[in-house]
Each structure stands twice: as structure tokens, then as C-alpha cells.
Amino acid sequence: MFGKTKTTLSERDVLDALKGVKDPDLGRDLVDLGMIKDVRVGDGTIALTVNLTTPACPLKAQIERDVRNALQARLPGEWTLNVSMTAEVRSKGTVEAGDIPGIKNVIAVGSGKGGVGKSTMAASIAFGLKSYGASVGLMDADVYGPSIPHLVGANERPRAIGERILPIETRGLKLMSMGFLLEPDRAVIMRGPMLHGIMQQFLRQVDWGELDYLVIDLPPGTGDVPLSLAQNLPLTGAVVVCTPQEVALLDATRAITMFRQLRVPVLGMVENMAFFDVLAYLKDRGGPEARKLVESRSFFDSPGDERAYLFGRGGARRRAQELGVPFLGEVPLNLYLRETGDAGRMDSALDPGSPSRPHLLGVVEQLAAQISIQNERKAQEEAKARLPKLEIIQ
To answer: Is the Cβ–Cβ distance between 142 and 219 less than 8 Å?
Structure first.
């Protein structure tokens, strides 16, 4: 292969040169995964497309760099390389009983207790995935305390066409919540069978259309709703949100145990309210004198002292390691994040310049990677199960 000239270089030569270049998250060869597309060899130019498994891939730049380095090192001569990076969200590959047609991945966001910012994280994850170009739905399964409508600034009533319910669409998200069906301040009083019926309606009768991701905001705790979902819907996996203090971690551990008992893969833990960034606060809200202090940083003795760990430090990261689940990231306690939710503009927390943006997008990227890993693992298990069993005759 390497003795060929530019004029005789083929698509097969290019693919051979890329053998061994792996997706760092999936741990498999890009060529074997079918991620190398549209290879074209022209006069001194090689053009190809790397089709990633998610637009929120955290290692996009590294993959492109590895592809370029392999081509430059393994092909003879000098070539101009045109590498396009695209993405197509993948599902687990095979259809299971209970799957919702058109929805590739269903992610449950839960917590062991209330008050840890679970709904804020669910809405942020949905808007974050949408910001990368994915098609996303957000379902509020917190029937007793539906807060998603307020967080995203939606107060319409869903319409029905025949037996199908049309979801509310706000800022690119498809939404469904009990909050759209209730009068303001009305309490929800219902038991397990009624909850099960509501969940089935939200999942089966809502016209979600084609979605890359459906994010489900679960009620806190380990009650009827997560049990009903896990029994009737093959979830891609679950995310557990907690805060750093020990009492929250104990409840988060119970949530992880519940998901494992229900055979729902745990995609990872998110530590919310991880710290209060004093510098970010002063820069955002301080006057001229405060801004001078921020620029000099002279009022802290050591680097890192500007982070105030109000609820303890690193508890979720340690617990995730102990439990053998991925840690998706820390989100600091931030006034802007709280204010955007109160104002019904949760999407603004991801705007350029928002102090929450890098932390939230970091969580979204790590979650998207774990979803791809889970789907690839599932596909390999199913492929292995389909292999014929050879009977050894003694």
C-alpha cells in the first residue's frame, strides 16, 4: 500500500491507514464502527467525513487530530486533508418490547431526595443536548410537583388530534408535564395505578415524533413512578443528581441501588451546588472596587480559595467511584442559574458568557459519551448473543 503514488491511492488505502484509530470513549476502531464516511481521493487531496455517535462528543477535537495524524504518517506523499466532523445519534440498535417508535434514547433524571436541583439539571441537560443540534424532548414525570413548565417558561395547554396528544414546543424542545393540565396551585392527589396510567399516556399517546433523546424528570425518591417506567419502558439509562453533603449522598446511593435492582443502567452522578464561586459572583454582581479585587485576586491566600464549599467537597465524586458509576461533573451554586429558572428561561443558563455554561455543557458532554458507550455495549452483547453455538461432539 505504502508504495503507491497519489494517482493510484484508493478509498481502501485510506481506510487501511485509519485502522487502529479508535474512538477514545467507545474503545473501538473508527473504521469498524462505520464512522468513516464519504472517502474521496482527488488530485493531491483526501476528503472524508467522521460521523460521530453524538453531536455532544467531548473528544471531537482529539478524534479529528488522531485521524489527521494517522493519514499523514501512514500514507505516502504529501496530501491536503479535508476532514469533516458530523454526528448521527445512535440508539441501542435493536428494537425491544416497550420501545417508543422514533425515540432513540430515553434518559431518566432522578435523585434520592428533593431539593437537590434535579429538575434544574433535567432541563439543563435537555437544553444542552439541544444546543449541540440534537432533537430532544423533555417529559416531566414529577406528577406531584411539576416544575418543568415554570423552568422553561411554558404555560400552554396541549392539544389533541384524535387519540394523539401534541406536546408543547418551547425553544426547540418538545415538552409534556402534568403542570400543563392543572389549574395553578391545584394539588395532585392520586395513587399508584393512576400514576401508572398518566405515565403511559405521556409516553404512548404523546406524539413525540423523531427524537435523539427523551429526558424524563423523575419525582424524588424511589416510589411508583420510576418503578412504572422501568417496568414498561427500556430506558437507555439514568442520571442521579445530588449535593455534596453526606445526607444527600445517602439518599443518592439508595436511588442508584433502586435503578440497579430495576436493571436500569446508571449513566452517572452529577454533583449540584458543588461550590460557590466567589470570584464569579463578584465579577458578575460587584461594583468597581469589587472588580478591581477580582482582577488582582490578592484577597485570597491560595489558588482555589475563591471556591467556597458550602455543603462539603467532592462527596459525589468519591461516592461515584465507590459505587463504580461514572461521575459526570460538578455544577456550582450560582445566582444566575437560579434566576434563569425562576424567570422561565432555563435555556439562558447555557448562553455564551453565562457562568454556568461551561459546567453544564461539561455534564452534557460526559452524559452523551456515556449514552454512546452504553449503546455500544448493548449492541455488542446482542451481537454476541446472535452468534451460533457450536456443539462439540466428543
So the answer is: yes
